[in-house]
Design a protein that fits this description.
- Chain A: It comes from Miniphocaeibacter halophilus.
- Chain A: Keywords: Kinase, Transferase.
- Chain A: This is Dihydroxyacetone kinase subunit L.
- The complex is a heterodimer of chains A (about 210) and B (about 130).
- With about 210 residues, chain A is mainly α.
- In chain A, helix 1 crosses helix 9 and helix 2 runs antiparallel to helix 3.
- The two termini of chain A are about 10 Å apart.
- The relative contact order of chain A is 0.15.
- Chain B has a 4-stranded parallel beta sheet with strand order 2-1-3-4, with helices on both faces.
- At the A-B interface, helix 4 and helix 5 of A face helix 3 of B.
């Protein structure tokens, strides 16, 4: 996959955030501050605008630009969290102009590591990590077992979806939702949901 | 004098804190930033970065914040700074309003960063990240 394909996928992630902004913000309104979808859409709209006006031939520069625009424009916690993920990815892929399926494992691994460090969160804290970690582990396992590209992607999305479902059963330990304690049970986490949507968009654009 | 940066999710809360510190600690280098660049509730890393640079001196900078995501943006802003500045900046876990005001008062009477950090331990509240 060339830089322009990566660019196209990121633009489509932005479109999906725009389409789902009310849904994500409603999820956030139940347990947080009700702006997650609008924040994400706003951040990615800056990315889309930049991508429409600039060409990139280095994946490191492309991912770094996404990181900076999300960090600068999202506003909520998701800005520094997703921004850190893209920043970590940018360091790894600096100087590269092509990605293949085996790079997906590294991308998810770096995202997970970056987001865990930035948010000081772990699995079962009811955050992005509850979708991202199972997705990463699924990709890692499937690549080790030489599964087909389609299978790797489909299982990744299924793992993330299951992770999102699981967030309904657990107590929020991070972010604004943690103030609700046990009352956060029953609600699905908006951050895990946006991560699922991002991963699903990646799959839908490749398969 | 120790520089103080106060980061709130609300522009009005930032203004309010500044109103008090200006009265109580007129000469202390204090900047309060709040809200996003388009006036929503949230924090803006670029304004945080500018604020740190503006109050920075060799005496160091203390950063106070209201809610967890302000801390994440504060951490990122500090990471963007040069190495020598970085080591002279602390993000403080303390009650926000009390922390900013008392730190500003101490800075105003030329107490050093270590003294102020020690005082802040009394109002540490184990903030949620």
């Amino acid at each position: 996959m060339k830089v322009d394909n990566v660019k196209k996928i990121i633009i489509n992630i932005g479109n999906i955030m725009e389409e789902n902004k009310s849904f994500l913000s409603e999820l956030d309104a139940a347990i947080g501050d009700g702006d997650h979808g609008h924040n994400m859409a706003k951040g990615f709209n800056f990315v889309i605008e930049d991508f429409n006006n600039n060409d990139y031939d280095d994946l490191g520069l492309l991912f770094k630009k996404v990181a900076m625009l999300l960090i600068s424009n999202v506003g909520g916690a998701s800005g520094p969290l997703y921004g850190t993920a893209f920043m970590e990815i940018s360091k790894e892929f600096s100087g590269r102009d092509e990605l293949n399926i085996s790079d997906l494992e590294k991308i998810l691994e770096l995202s997970l590591k970056g987001i865990k460090l930035r948010g000081k969160a772990e699995l079962d804290d009811k955050t992005i990590i509850d979708a991202l970690q199972p997705a990463y582990l699924s990709v890692k396992k499937d690549l080790e077992n030489n599964e087909s590209e389609n299978q790797v992607l489909e299982n990744m999305v299924m793992a993330a979806e299951k992770g999102v479902e699981h967030t309904k059963e657990i107590i929020a330990k991070k972010g604004r939702a943690s103030y609700l304690g046990e009352r956060s049970i029953g609600h699905q986490d908006p951050g895990a949901t946006s991560t699922y949507l991002i991963l699903k968009t990646i799959k839908d654009n490749i398969i | 004098m120790v520089g103080i940066v106060a980061i709130s999710h609300s522009g009005k809360l930032a203004e309010g804190i500044l109103e008090i510190t200006e009265q109580m600690a007129k000469n202390a280098p204090v900047i309060a930033v709040g809200g996003t660049n388009d006036g929503r509730i949230g924090t803006d890393i670029n304004r945080i970065l500018n604020a740190i640079n503006e109050v920075y001196s060799e005496d160091g900078v203390l950063i106070f914040y209201d809610l967890g995501s302000a801390m994440m943006n504060a951490e990122m802003a500090v990471e963007f700074l040069d190495e020598d500045k970085k080591s002279n900046i602390e993000i403080v876990d303390a009650a926000f309003v009390e922390g900013v005001i008392s730190a500003a008062v101490y800075s105003n009477i030329n107490m050093d960063k270590e003294f102020i950090l020690d005082e802040m331990k009394k109002i540490k509240i184990n903030k949620r990240d």
